[in-house]
Amino acid sequence: MIRIQQEDFDIGAEISKLRSGRTDIGAIVTFTGTVRDTAQGECISEMTLEHYPGMTEKELQRIEQQATARWPLQGSLIIHRYGTMKPGENIVLVITASAHRQAAFEAAEFLMDYLKTKAPFWKKEDGPDGGTWVDARDSDDDALKRWETRRKAAE
Amino acid sequence: MSVKLLYFAWVREKTGLGEETVDLPGSVQTVSDLMAWLKARGPEYEAAFDKSDFIRAAIDHTHVTHSTSIDKAREIAFFPPVTGG
Question: What is the ipTM of this complex?
Answer without folding.
Answer: 0.95
